Amino acid sequence: MSKLKNIPEFQTDDQEREFWSDEDSTDYIDWRKSKPMFFSKLKPSTKTISLRLPEFLLEELRMLANKRDIPYQSLIKMFLKDKIDQELKKAI
């Protein structure tokens, strides 16, 4: 790889966006030295699904969620996550 170019200093985000829209980052960064990063604080992307539940089950979920003072959809996600984690531990 040839010598890397210096990244200029930018006054605004718009200037930086404009610069990178026209430039090849491999001229400025040796990506072979890069390391994976984890952004655990970012909100995960979600996908809307349709789920049919018996009415009694939905009412029980709402009742439990109300006791915990959280939305019932959040409670469903918590229950699913707990159960998935359990099942994945069994699979190991």
Mean pLDDT across the residues is 92
The portion of residues assigned to helices is: 40-55%
**Top-tier CATH class of the largest domain:** Mainly Alpha
Q: What integer value in Å does the Rg equal?
A: 24 Å
Reading the helices and strands in chain order gives HHH
Could you say which overall geometry the principal axes of the C-alpha atoms support?
elongated
> Would you identify the regions where 5 or more consecutive residues have pLDDT less than 50?
none
Strand portion: under 5%
Which sheet architecture does the biggest sheet show? none
Please tell me about this protein's structure.
The protein is built from three helices and no strands. It starts with 12 loop residues before the first helix and ends with a helix. The mean pLDDT is about 90. The chain has helices at about 15-20, 55-70, 70-90. It is elongated. It has about 90 residues and is mainly α. Helix 2 packs across helix 3 (about 70-90).
